Amino acid sequence: MDVRVTGDLDFDFDFDLDCEVLDLSGVKDDGGVDLMEMTCPRLTISRSSNGEEAIAQRRSWGENLTYYTGIGYLGGAVTGAGKGIVEGVKASEAGDTMKLRVNRILNASGHTGRKFGNRAGVIGLMYAGLESGMVAIRDTDDVVNSVVAGLGTGALYKAASGPRSAAVAGAMGGVVVGLAVTGKQLLKRHVPI
């Protein structure tokens, strides 16, 4: 069924349009322009083999950059703070007052948390940039982009340590991302959410 809209159309929205709720697929204006493409440019609509339409939403490169950098920093900071707490407890001495012990623990967790958070945030930043670049170059969003971005991120992160370290880190990055993407796909397939 092809629905046509006649007359002047004025789309001047002052709010965020929830494109998943609003179904404009198949609705066209006088010029034959699909309204779904006009109102929801980040959505890609594809038909499966049985004719059903599937809508997949892709984050923009800026959203990807923010997401991976933030998740990396947060995860690294929490992990580093945990390691710092353990280091602070181990560094405390028998004659220390409670105030001194707490101070050691807070200093160690803050120092290690910042260090780990910054490293993981930089890795997330590089990964997001490489993955978005791959999507832009290849004009497709698939597993290959993620794995190549993981390879490149590992290699770039350890490039200053020499070619052997960069190659090992690149291989590790590609394997980790490949396993993560495969695990995510298996989880989507077998766990009903």
Indicate how many domains the architecture comprises. Answer: 3
- Secondary structure class reads mainly alpha
Strand share of the residues? 5-15%
- Uncertain segments of ≥5 residues (pLDDT<50)? 9-18
Written account of the structure:
This protein has helices at 35-39, 61-91, 98-138, 143-157, 163-190; strands at 3-4, 27-28, 43-47, 53-57. It is mainly alpha-helical and 193 residues long. It folds into 3 domains: 1-57, no CATH class; 59-135, no CATH class; 142-186, no CATH class. The protein has a two-stranded parallel ribbon. It has a two-stranded antiparallel sheet with strand order 3-4. A hairpin with a 5-residue loop joins strand 3 (43-47) and strand 4.
Itemize the secondary structure elements and their pairings:
Blueprint: E1 3-4, E2 27-28, H1 35-39, E3 43-47, E4 53-57, H2 61-91, H3 98-138, H4 143-157, H5 163-190
Parallel strand pairs: 1-2
Antiparallel strand pairs: 3-4
Helix pairs in contact: 2-3, 3-4, 4-5
Protein name: Mitochondrial import inner membrane translocase subunit TIM23-2
Write a compact overview of the structure shown.
By secondary structure, the protein is mainly α.
List its salient traits.
mainly alpha; 5 helices; 4 strands; 7% strand; elongated
